[in-house]
Structures are given as structure tokens and as C-alpha cells.
Amino acid sequence: MDGARKSRKIAVLCAFVAWTTVTGVAVAALTDYASRPGIAARAPTSWPKTTRLARTPGRSTLVMIAHTKCSCTRASLHELADVMATTGDRLDAIVVFVGPHEGSGLGGIIDLRASASAIPNVRVIEDESEARVFGAATSGQTLLYDEDGALVFRGGLTVARGHEGESAGGELVKRFASADAAMRRRHAATSSTSSTSSTSPSGSDVFGCSLFDNHIKEP
After folding, report:
1. What whole-number distance in Å separates Cα of residue 179 and Cα of residue 186?
2. Cis peptide bond prior to 201, omega within 30° of 0
3. Could you tell me if 84 and 122 are in contact, meaning their C-beta atoms sit under 8 angstroms apart?
4. Which among 102, 155, 123, 106 is positioned nearest to 53, based on CA atoms?
5. Which of 53, 136, 134, 131 lies closest to 92, judged by CA?
6. pLDDT one digit per residue (tens) for the chain, 219 residues
7. If you write DSSP's letter for every residue of the chain in order, what string do you get?
């Protein structure tokens, strides 16, 4: 009897150890995925002549490229709303959506468009070709061009994939929008928080799905 009880205890202990090991591995994998940056944009260093997007001369312009079916897009839009609320009328923004934009079962996508359109001073465009003009590869890619059309920031506004909250990219954009032109250029030439680039413009990692990969998680 004691032998059978002991065997059951050992079996339960082994099962518990196996469960905690599997759970730990799964959590580690999810954490690694969430904190793994996407491919940074090869963005034009000045406002591209081939774009059809209108820029107001004398005003800084932010461009965010996002995929309509990426689960990270909602967090990126949330952080964009925070940036625009902080910068007020000093900044224009354009959200360029890539991916499906019409058809049945796309309520979540329609909601994303509505969320972006509701942000003050934000225009919404649906044009995959514009994402390519700006060299974007990852959903959530954000580019900031100053009033002269020079690229001063390239990166993302979230701290990880699908995570809301203060991020290096968001703080940099707020700082640029609040500074005068001379200060922005000095900062762009001397600092970068990106792990992938040490030269101007300033930047941060971008976290999101591949813009041109069909196998992405839906919101």
C-alpha cells in the first residue's frame, strides 16, 4: 500500500515538473516573440518625390504604415493617439493601411480604420504602394519628416509587439515635435536608441507583423 502511494506521489511530482517546464518554455517563447523587433524601413531620407501623399510645407509630418490584419496594429494606433494628444497642432500624421479593407467578416478592420480616423490631425490612406515608397517592411513602422521634408525619426511607437505604454520611439517623436528645427537636426545627428542603426536619423526598434507576409495574426 505504501509503495503504491509513493509511486503515485512520484508520478504527480513528475507531471508537475513536466507541466512547469512546458509552461516556462511557452512563456519564454512568447516573451521572445513579443520583444523581437521587425525589419526596419529603408526609408527615404527626404520626403519622396514619388509619393502621392500630400505634405503641408512648413509642418512636420508623421507617417505610420500598418497592416489591417496585424494584431499589433491596435497598440500602435493607441500610441499614435497619445503622441498626437501630446503634440497638439504641431504635427500632421498619415496612417497608411496595407491589407484587406473591404468584404465580409472585416469588422475588426473597419474598427481600426475608425480608430485611426478619430485621432485629431490624422488622415487615413489605404494604399500598399505607398508603404513600398516609404520602404516599410513591418506593421507599425513610423517615420517623422520635419517641416523641410527631412527624415528625423524612423522606428516604432510601441515597446513590444502588441504592447501599449511608454516607449523610446514615442518619447523621441514627442521630443522632436516639441523642439525647434535646429534642435531636431542636432538630436537626429547625434543620438539613436535603435539596436540596428547608429547613424542619423534617430530611431527605435519597430515591433509588428511583416507588412507583406500573408501569415499574420488577426486583431
Report:
1. 11
2. yes
3. yes
4. 123
5. 53
6. 555 555 565 655 555 444 454 443 333 333 444 568 889 899 999 999 999 999 988 889 999 999 998 889 999 999 999 999 998 788 999 999 998 765 545 555 668 888 999 999 999 999 999 999 999 999 999 999 999 999 999 999 998 866 687 888 899 999 888 775 555 555 555 544 444 444 467 788 999 999 987 544 444
7. -HHHHHHHHHHHHHHHHHHHHHHHHHHHHHHHHHT---PPP---SB--TT------TTSEEEEEEEETT-TTHHHHHHHHHHHHHHHGGGEEEEEEEES--SSTT-HHHHHHHHHHHTSTTEEEEE-HHHHHHTT--BTTEEEEE-TTSBEEEEE-SSSBTTB-S--HHHHHHHHHHHS-HHHHHHHHHH----SS--SSSEE----S-BTT-S-----
Residue at 179: amino acid letter: A
C-alpha cell, 143: 517615420
The upper half-sphere exposure of residue 196, i.e. CA atoms within 13 Å in the direction of its Cβ, equals 15
Please give the Cα distance from 37 to 43 (Å, whole number). Answer: 17
Instruction: Label residue 9 exposed, middle or buried (CB < 10 Å: 0-12, 13-18, 19+).
Output: exposed
